What we know:
This protein has 4 domains: 106 residues, no CATH class; 100 residues, CATH 2.40.50.140; 187 residues, P-loop containing nucleotide triphosphate hydrolases (Rossmann fold, 3-Layer(aba) Sandwich); 157 residues, 3-Layer(aba) Sandwich (Rossmann fold), CATH 3.40.50. It is of the alpha/beta class and 705 residues long. About 2% of the residues have low confidence. 41% of the residues are buried. The chain is globular and about 100 Å long. The protein has 25 helices and 22 strands. Helix 7 crosses helix 8 and helix 8 packs across helix 15. The protein is 40% helix and 17% strand.
Amino acid sequence: MRPPRLAPLFATVRALKGVGPRIEGLLNKLVAPRQQGAHARAIDLLWHLPVSIVDRARMPSISQALMGELATLEVRVAEHRPGGGRRGARAPYRILVEDDTGALELVYFKADPNYLKRLLPIGETRLISGKIEAYDGWLQMPHPDHVAAVDKDGALPLIEPVYPLTAGLSNTTLRKAIDGALRQLPKLPEWIDAAYLAKLAWPSFADAIRGLHAPDGEADLLPSAAARARLAYDELLANQLALAIIRQRLKKRAGKSLAASGDLRRAIVGALPFALTGAQQRALGEIDADMASDSRMLRLLQGDVGSGKTVVALLAMATAVEAGTQAAFMAPTELLARQHLATISGFAEPANLRVALLTGRERGKERDGILDALKAGDIDILIGTHALFQETVAFRNLGLVVIDEQHRFGVHQRLALQRKGTGTGAELLVMTATPIPRTLLLTSYGDMDVSRLDEKPPGRKPIVTRTVPLERLDEVTDGVARALESGAQIYWVCPLVAESEVLDVAAAEERFAELRARFGDRVGLVHGKLTGKEKDAVMARFASGELSILVSTTVIEVGVDVPNASIMIIEHAERFGLAQLHQLRGRVGRGAAESSCILLYKQPLGETARERLNVMRRTEDGFVIAEEDLRLRGGGEVLGTRQSGLPAFRIAILPEHQELLEAARDAARLTLSRNPTLEGDDGERLRLLLYLFERDDAVKLMRAG
Ligand code: ADP
Ligand code: MG
């Protein structure tokens, strides 16, 4: 339960003064977080920060006022000139104002004359502020931003924050709404350690928010400004605390001590068509040590596409099975689950491991059979999608959970899976193909132990990457024709047309039709609108070599493994993010053949897009690409937070706030070691913080005992 004093902050903006249905709609569009059912709340307004300021400190006389510039003037109202004319073609309402040096017309289109007469009575002096323009030789100020009586102290903001807006919403209206939200700020106790706060000379939480919305100059908008830094720290602290709570909970249950003599593993390794890389062996050593110890394993296996994570997972599962338990392996999609089933059951055969599949597609009798066998202990390794973790799925003795998340599962989902699947204290191995920069590793996994596969299996040849403008599509297709003659297999990825799957599919279908007209039956098509069965069928035909060209939308992005495929063509590569391009390219270069990647782009290229494509040409190193991605995108939106499941921050920006992140991690660790269940006043304050930044899952988890 959210503490009652925070309720006003989490009420919808509709509760704020001056916000009616129209403005509410605009605010929903502007600031509502997606996962909140698209309803903007007061707190969302508070997190909506200004991007620049307008400085009205200049107070020239009319004759000194500069054309095209913003000015604040002290003027006398001389004359009202109502707009005449017929309805529909109404002339604007003009008001002549003057000072000792000259005159100026205020121009209002569509304004209520009575309102204007009250606002600017003839003969009175007013402060007006707005942009000066010239029209027909006259000085004008169309729709002044502000009009204030001179004696009303502080009525006119000299420095005004400027916010990102949406069509139909003015800065002034938004500011009023934000002012309303600021008034909802309750009195809150301080949760930051007093000494730390004093050392950095940070304002209180409430003062910091007020400060951010009332900047005194450009410097106040920088990430390093005290108010901004304080709130960034708060947000990062909430993030680190939540992760630390999750970790603490997972670690608290004594793990099993899973040790084995290694017979099963030897049987598998002996039959592999390759030798394990040094990196794979190192990772296995670390995993073995974790599993053998009696505290629970919580390990992230990070390895670029093609680095051979699957085998590592299988060998870890073999140990779990030999130690008398079962293992579960969860893939992000059904397609991948099926592919893993094929790979893993093949490799596992020499060890006689019993491997089964459970996805949403297994139903009725088939599903019941699997569940019974699982309960009876007749299945050693169960591979599947998140269907693995439904309540009805019961293992006889689950020892190890492997999550091949490839970045599709967020922290919260992971958390849920943990609770369902592993009440038994199963060991946990999470695998990710996204080379997450160190900075972000901390924000999305907290202090998880990490093994890195930083070495590719031997014999991989470099992938030659070329960028080609779309105008030269014909040459590319001719190249495809030549490659097909020598037996090559080709991925052809179609553009992300819009945020719409339907449009993507249409584009892929069109390309498919064209290629098919030229190359016939050897061309296949796979996209997200196909059923699981249909996708599998196409993929199987491509894997078997029956199809030579696989046209697809980005559904092949994760994990698909067809070692014979050696050419990757990506249309409209400029629309993809770096991480995505890297994942796609990683589909080739897995076999013996020379591989290439052709990035087709549409001219003209924007600067960032050009840089992205250059990075792709320059390097294949996922970690370098990830760091470049971070640099090119700048903070907040790293790696496409939405798809990736990485937490999105509202105030903190990385890497700018890296130091604060580390301080927050240390503080979270220290706090929980002293006060693991956040008891007492100190605990109460930190819970408030978790609620403020909507990390309340962690609080619930703690309550659950
Ligand atoms: P990812 O890390 O992307 O999941 P995979 O596990 O799919 O990578 O492995 C990619 C390919 O490399 C597979 O075909 C796999 O059989 C092969 N592979 C894995 N380990 C080695 C190795 N040590 N030597 C050679 N090939 C390997
Ligand atoms: Mg994989």
